[in-house]
């Protein structure tokens, strides 16, 4: 269990956005607060919209997507691409890998991490920026 960040409030959200070079609009502040006050987690745009509605912040899904991508570009989030049309945004931007539970569409950090050996040779003039591993899981069929 990751520690919560009970001290993460609107002021922290403002500092975080300003430090990242983003203008702290009211909508960005609300979404940053929702995203980052709960410690490390993996959030889809749909889940974030539900959380926003619960605290009476009305934001369209398109705006949520835009904001999540802006936060990602600013280095505040990391996108975990699981399927072509499904994106999860990770509040932990450090290098780590994920389990994906197919039955309930859940993304979880692989406990203890994993090592990736035998990386391929990359094309001439290119370098690896990051290796993202998603290990997909389903219940065993007996
Ligand atoms: Zn993660």
TrEMBL record:
<keyword id="KW-0678">Repressor</keyword>
<dbReference type="Pfam" id="PF01475">
    <property type="entry name" value="FUR"/>
</dbReference>
<dbReference type="GO" id="GO:0045892">
    <property type="term" value="P:negative regulation of DNA-templated transcription"/>
</dbReference>
<dbReference type="GO" id="GO:0003700">
    <property type="term" value="F:DNA-binding transcription factor activity"/>
</dbReference>
<dbReference type="GO" id="GO:0000976">
    <property type="term" value="F:transcription cis-regulatory region binding"/>
</dbReference>
<dbReference type="GO" id="GO:0005737">
    <property type="term" value="C:cytoplasm"/>
</dbReference>
<keyword id="KW-0479">Metal-binding</keyword>
<dbReference type="InterPro" id="IPR036388">
    <property type="entry name" value="WH-like_DNA-bd_sf"/>
</dbReference>
<keyword id="KW-0408">Iron</keyword>
<dbReference type="InterPro" id="IPR036390">
    <property type="entry name" value="WH_DNA-bd_sf"/>
</dbReference>
<keyword id="KW-0862">Zinc</keyword>
<keyword id="KW-0238">DNA-binding</keyword>
<comment type="subunit">
    <text>Homodimer.</text>
</comment>
<protein>
    <recommendedName>
        <fullName>Ferric uptake regulation protein</fullName>
    </recommendedName>
</protein>
<comment type="similarity">
    <text>Belongs to the Fur family.</text>
</comment>
<keyword id="KW-0963">Cytoplasm</keyword>
<dbReference type="GO" id="GO:1900376">
    <property type="term" value="P:regulation of secondary metabolite biosynthetic process"/>
</dbReference>
<dbReference type="InterPro" id="IPR002481">
    <property type="entry name" value="FUR"/>
</dbReference>
<keyword id="KW-0804">Transcription</keyword>
<keyword id="KW-0805">Transcription regulation</keyword>
<dbReference type="GO" id="GO:0008270">
    <property type="term" value="F:zinc ion binding"/>
</dbReference>
């Amino acid at each position: 269990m990751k520690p919560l960040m009970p001290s993460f409030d609107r002021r922290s959200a403002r500092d975080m956005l300003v430090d990242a070079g983003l203008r702290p609009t009211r909508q960005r502040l609300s979404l940053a607060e929702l995203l980052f006050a709960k410690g490390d987690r993996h959030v889809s745009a749909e889940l974030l919209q539900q959380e926003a509605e619960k605290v009476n912040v009305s934001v369209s899904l398109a705006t949520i997507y835009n904001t999540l991508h802006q936060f990602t570009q600013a280095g505040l989030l990391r996108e975990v691409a699981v399927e072509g049309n499904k994106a999860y945004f990770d509040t932990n931007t450090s290098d780590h890998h994920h389990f994906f539970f197919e039955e309930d569409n859940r993304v979880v950090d692989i406990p203890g991490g994993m090592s990736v050996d035998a990386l391929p040779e990359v094309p001439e003039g290119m370098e690896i920026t990051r290796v993202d591993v998603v290990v997909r899981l389903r219940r065993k069929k007996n």
